[in-house]
Amino acid sequence: AVVSTQSTGGRFLIHRIKKEEAAYKLCNVKSVRTAAKGVTVITTHDGRTIRYPDTLIKMHDTVKVDIATNKAADYIKFEPGNLAYITGGEICGRIGIFTDKE
Q1: N or C end of the chain: smaller count of CB under 10 Å?
Q2: What is the pTM of this model?
Q3: For residues 76 and 85, what is the distance between their CA atoms, to the nearest angstrom?
């Protein structure tokens, strides 16, 4: 599999990924809600709905989704001190340390 990423110059670069990396996707959590019968459900940025996630997953966290099973395998909290990748705006493509949230 091949993934394209944006370089700091605004151009896209292509690099290969391994089969292990192609088996999952990182998704941003857009909403956490309770569905029928008290089932907790999260919705990700790409429209996936995942039932019965870890109770510690909150909105804006990043979830590692196993593509084969569509289940949340792991998660990364949205908190200061974590690595961040800018996905929009004038400084798109830059990577840095997340320092604080307002």
Answers
A1: C
A2: 0.76
A3: 13
